[in-house]
Write a structure and sequence with these properties.
Keywords: Membrane, Transferase, Transmembrane, Transmembrane helix
Number of helices: 17
Pfam family, one: Bac_transf
Subcellular location: Membrane
Helix content: 40-55%
Shape: flat
Protein name: Transferase
Largest sheet: 7 strands, mixed
InterPro entries: Bact_transf, EPS_sugar_tfrase, NAD(P)-bd_dom_sf
Length: 512
């Protein structure tokens, strides 16, 4: 794994270094020229801000296809923002004139475009010489997969060398590369063949098997691209690339930057500490009520499973006194006759979970994340619920994506695992903020709107039909054919209705 990670990282880093260095050099030249011809302050301010944007953004990350024209809108935006800000700040202060700022920005745009053109030409030349190539596996050997493999093999400018194909029981033409194994072996094959890029297309494999195999690649360093369904209708966007008319949608890596996780932890410590101080009177009242109802020992301690499967001790207010170890294997106590008024109330309002703020402060949990479960049920769900074991890739939490979707209580474990994994694969600090606001909004009681029923109008009088005249022609009804039959009223009455049909549904488990 280390060897392939170093090779792939080196090729990606060379790409970024080549483009970044040429663009920064172009900006330095613009700054010097603008300072000499126009004014030093706007020249330095605008070009320095643009250079920071070049270095911190992902616009110069490794890619398959290289197009200066495709990047031109993003380049223009990168230049426009610092230019407009400099114009709004420096001009009113009398430190620059509008024309000086605008000319500096225009020169920076031209310089970046030229530098990018030269950088891409250098990268293409290196790739055609067989340098800086990434090693790739193609999952799926249907038409899209074989076409993609052929295009990458013949198009050296893409910077990809296809090592082989992965599929389940599907023969493959020999000139397109070897079929290395089934989808279940994908993590092992990525490690064995030092793979840098995994391209998921269509084939004989099952989609759920591919999902599990791709999730197993977390931490491998391999980037994953997926050919979307009905890709003929696909529209290009900033996270997709095009290879010979086949779109490749890049999956965001699950290994999030350490800096972002540090921000998450800092928020957890700050909010939990402040919250514990603010709700301390509430905690004292609940503790007194629980002690009066259930006796000494108001805090219930239970082992739960946290991130990466590591157990920890979770704190809750005690609702009742459990007998022996029933709390570790009994799923739900909401209907237990031993529950008193206090126990029912704190469980219904989730006030029994307030002591988990201490778990958040200790680092056992986060404010936002999948809800922690007991080890007994984790073992069962890992064996029976698809994808359940992958939910522990992120810290468990006080509230989570599944919880704000209403997936608590008597709800599907399959659904919970789906939203927990969706949270893990799309996590960001902003997603945590949104989940926190959604949680607060669900705690605020909402008054149901009163139903406004329409007032029925009185029925209109229907005039009686006129009496037939004696000389009116007699209407002769046609006789029914002999084969026409009239339904038997008893048969109609005894016919099965929707209510009498057996309706099956998924068996769900109640609240944790």
């Amino acid at each position: 794994m280390g060897r392939h990670a170093r090779g792939g990282s080196a090729a990606r880093n060379k790409f970024t270094v080549i483009v970044n260095s040429l663009e920064v050099a172009a900006l330095v030249a613009v700054a010097a020229l603008s300072a000499w011809l126009l004014a030093p302050l706007p020249a330095v301010a605008v070009t320095a801000a643009i250079a920071i944007g070049v270095l911190v953004s992902r616009r110069n990350a490794w890619r398959f296809a290289l197009s200066v024209l495709d990047d031109l809108p993003a380049t223009a935006l990168l230049v426009a923002v610092p230019t407009v800000l400099a114009d709004a700040v420096l001009v009113p202060l009398g430190l620059a004139r509008p024309l000086e700022v605008l000319l500096t920005g225009a020169a920076a745009l031209v310089a970046l475009t030229l530098a990018r053109t030269v950088a891409f030409a250098v990268v293409r030349r290196r790739r055609k010489d067989g340098r800086d190539h990434l090693r790739a596996l193609i999952v799926g050997s249907d038409e899209a997969g074989t076409r993609l493999g052929s295009s990458l093999d013949h198009g050296l400018q893409y910077g990809i060398r296809v090592v082989g194909f992965v599929d389940d029981d599907r023969p493959l033409l020999a000139d397109l590369g070897p079929q290395l194994g089934s989808v279940e072996l994908l993590p092992q094959l990525v490690d064995e063949h030092r793979i840098d890029v995994v391209l998921v297309t269509f084939g004989a494999h099952r989609d759920d098997a591919v999902v599990d195999a791709v999730r197993e690649l977390t931490g491998s360093g391999a980037e994953v691209y997926v050919v979307p369904r009905m890709f003929e209708l696909h529209q290009r966007n900033k996270v997709s690339e095009m290879v010979d008319g086949i779109p490749l949608q890049r999956l965001r890596p699950i290994s999030h930057p350490r800096g972002a996780w540090r921000i998450k932890r800092a928020i957890d410590v700050t909010v939990s500490a402040v919250a514990l101080v603010m709700v301390s009177p509430v905690l004292a009242v609940i503790a007194a009520a629980v002690r009066k109802e259930t006796g000494p020992g108001v805090i219930f301690k239970q082992e739960r499973i946290g991130q990466h499967g590591v157990p920890f001790t979770l704190f809750k207010f005690r609702s009742l006194i459990p007998v022996g170890g029933e709390g570790d294997v009994r799923w739900n106590i909401d209907t237990d006759t031993r529950l008193g008024r206090v126990g029912k109330f704190i469980r219904a309002t989730s006030l029994d979970e307030l002591p988990q703020l201490v778990n958040v402060l200790k680092g056992d949990m986060s404010l936002v994340g999948p809800r922690p479960e007991r080890g007994y049920f984790v073992e069962r769900f890992n064996e029976t619920i698809p994808g359940y074991r992958f939910r522990h890739r992120v810290p468990v939490g006080l509230t989570g994506y599944a919880a704000v979707q209403g997936l608590r209580g008597d709800t599907s474990i399959h659904q919970r695992a789906h939203f927990d994994n969706l949270y893990a694969e799309s996590w960001s600090v902003w997603l945590d903020v949104k989940i926190a606001f959604w949680t607060i909004s669900q705690l605020v009681p909402k008054r149901a709107p009163e139903a406004v029923l329409p007032v029925p109008s009185p029925p209109a009088e229907v005039p009686a039909p006129p009496a037939p005249m004696d000389d009116a022609p007699t209407t002769v009804l046609p006789r029914l054919p002999q084969h026409t039959s009239v339904p038997d009223p008893d048969a109609v009455r005894d016919a099965p209705t929707a209510a009498s049909l057996e309706i099956t549904h998924e068996i769900t488990l109640p609240r944790d």
